[in-house]
Amino acid sequence: MPYDFEQIVERIDQQKFWTFPGGVHPDGRKHLSNQTAINTLPLPKQLVIPVKQHIGTAGACLVSVGDKVLKGQTLTSSPHPFSVPVHAPTSGLVTAIEERTTAHPSGLPELCVVVEADGNDTWTELKPIADYQQQTKSSLISAICEAGIAGMGGAGFPTHIKSTARKKVEFLIINGVECEPYITADDRLMREFAWQIRQGIDILSHLIEPKVVIIAIEDNKPEAFKAMQQVCNDTPAIRVVQIPTKYPAGGEKQLIQVLTGREVPRTGLPADIGVMMFNVGTCYAIADAILHGKPLIQRVVTVTGEAVQKPQNVWALIGTPIEHLLSQAQYQLKKQKAPTVIMGGPMMGFTLPSVEVPVVKITNCLLIPAKKELNLSQRELSCIRCSACADACPVSLLPQQMYWHSKALELDKAEEYNLFDCIECGACAYVCPSEIPLVHYYRKAKAQIRIQRDDKDKAEKSKQRFEARKARLEKEKQEREAKHKKAAAARKQATQPATGEDGGAKDKVAAALARAKAKKAEQAQATENPAGADAKPDDNKAKVAAAIARAKAKKAQQAEAPVADSQGSAEDDRKAKVAAAVARAKAKKAAQQTEPDDTANATDSAPAESAKDARKAKIAAAVARAKAKKEAAGAPTESSAETDNDSDSREDQRKAKIAAAVAKAKAKKQAAEQAESEPQATELEPQEPAQEDDSPEAQRKAKIAAAVAKAKAKKQAAEQAESEPQATEHAPAEPAQEEDSLEAQRKAKIAAAVAKAKAKKQAAEQAESEPQATEHEPAEPAQEEDSPQAQRKAKIAAAIARAKAKKAQREAEQSGSEDNE
Fold it and tell me: Where are the compositionally biased (Low complexity) regions (predicted)?
């Protein structure tokens, strides 16, 4: 059961204390270095400042290579609470920021800032706090942190974290025990700077507000005890006490047990039992930071051992190479078998890998032993199981079992024996008769277990990240699926009718097609009827249907054009050539049949008329070819005939009727013009019987011409029927084909009549114009001889033309009456 506050205070006042188990009494040998005052070293040429000198997180560099720095300038910074900055120990130039070997048992390199001293030792701007009691606690704690103060008793724990009291503190213990042999840094500090240590204690008391402050000093330091007692007599709350000399009485847990009789829990902190502890060097640094504004850039270091000529305590700047301190103490290498420098005391110190290692905040001693001063042979023998190590352990552990399991790398079993409760005091190794470096095995095992824990923590964090990512992706997937389902439901609801019946829903494709058709009909309506609003629904439908029909006809024409054009053009050319040859033959025959007794006018007009007839025949052939091409282009293709036979046939009939009406009108006009021109012809034809004699021949020629025209029409109809084999398969297309063939025959007859009338009219016009021409031309003998024969032939030709024109007129009238019926 822990002792209460009143009992503890009463025992302290009576100078009665508790004790701890185990412990040893090694030879202190403190007289080597505690006889002289603390010396100040000359400024070194180069300082190496490790970025991390405390327990916690290292800060980030604020300077770069080539920067000039002032003494006390901040070199690193970090927002992490378990981090304190480091400062420039002197003014100079940053020459390197690199990894170098530092003061650590592992000898591994760490990041350091290398400063080349300029010799001026110029301070940066300092910000002291004169009346700290008027300041808030948070501002004071922040100033302690910015000063870079960490525990200077050896642990290196950030001081500003310990200064933030979260629990009620009954006892504030100031540790001035310094139980390690050879070390006298705290002893000389208490002797020479007792008042500044007292100022630091007052600042801590202001922050923590303990009930009692206890300054503990071993009874082997009477001068330090008197100095501290003298500066604290005016404050009853501060008690300066002497405790029995026993190693390791200066350990945190051991000293708390000696002064209060309370034991710190195995996994707890001193604050859990109402106790807070600071080193006297830490108190001095706090007073320097608050009252003078100086950061932690130097500390007292003991340089001792029989291998140096001048053992002493010195003020060493943080970052000073060990070699510089050894040169000031006049290191004598010949007194050692091998160069050996131990940082710390003989119990807890470690051998440095190099003398270029810098001084850090937790460096309190450099031990340079002579040949036989310490047993450094490391002559490890087998364990004899004497249990002396267990008797000396101040934490009541079993060092022998921990040694076996640590050496065999059975880390789990070593941890089961509370390996991490070991304070590494070295008492077990000190009493071991086999000279086994037990602490060395414990440190190695602890490092390996920490590595395994770190790997396990990293794996666990990776697993957590993976599971979190997996859960996040699954959640996003579910959200996407829910979103898609929601959108699909919305689309389905939008496509359903208002009544909600399933049968009334339209397919999306059908709806899209309907919209496209409506848009197309709108565009067609807009092009046909710009008025839009004034058009009637029936007219709009008719226009739409007409536009569709035109589009279909155009498409059919484009599809049939390559075949129809090639066939039609070849046939038309052949027909035109035949017609031209027939015309030329007729003209030659008419010229051969002319007699010499014809008149000059008849002689002159016959050749002209035959030439004109040939030219007109060519024109008629060209017109026939153009009409054939037009009819071929207007004829429906096989695909359109299958779908639109009825509408196309009606359209063709309408066009045929229009063409027949036009032909009749032209025939009537030509007949009237012929009637006007016939009297002149009768004046030139006194003999009427010639017409009667030639009428059978004229009738025969007219019948031959009509038969030729009919044959051509039938042949054209047959070719058209062959070019449209698929159209004949449909019943509605057959009547239209028959009507087309009859219409073609009728058109051929009309064309022949028109050609004859035009030929006659041109012959009459030529006869009227030629007499004037004969007045200017001398009559040739041959022409005079042939004039009677030419006149007779001209009369015959005129009679034939009149007969053909009359017959064509009658046929045109008959065809017109049939069309009207």
Answer: 543-564, 672-681
425 is in an annotated binding site: yes
The span from the CA of 664 to the CA of 655, in Å, is 14
**Topology at the third CATH level for domain 1-28+169-283:** Rossmann fold (3.40.50)
Residue 386 annotated as binding site: yes
Using an 8 Å Cβ cutoff, are 445 and 414 in contact? yes
Consult the annotation and say whether 389 binds a ligand: yes
Residue 232 in marked binding region: no
* Rounded Cα gap, residues 212 and 168, in angstroms: 12
Output the furthest CA–CA distance in the chain (Å, rounded): 186
Distances (CA, A) of 757 to 500, 586, 670: 78, 17, 6
What is the 3-state composition of the chain as percent helix, strand, coil, each rounded to the nearest 5? 55, 10, 35
User: Which residues are bridge partners to 351 per DSSP?
Assistant: 342
Domain map (residue ranges) of the chain: 1-28+169-283, 388-456, 558-820
Residue 352 CA to its chain's centroid (Å): 53
Whether 283 has a binding-site annotation, put simply, is no
Are 280 and 197 contacting, i.e. CB atoms less than 8 angstroms apart? yes
Q: What is the mean pLDDT of each run of 10 residues along the chain (821 residues)?
A: 83 91 92 93 94 87 94 91 92 94 82 94 91 91 93 85 86 94 95 95 94 94 94 92 93 93 89 93 94 94 94 95 94 90 91 91 93 79 92 93 93 92 92 91 91 90 93 94 91 69 56 79 69 49 68 64 50 67 70 48 43 59 61 45 47 66 68 53 38 54 69 67 44 40 64 70 61 40 48 72 76 60 48
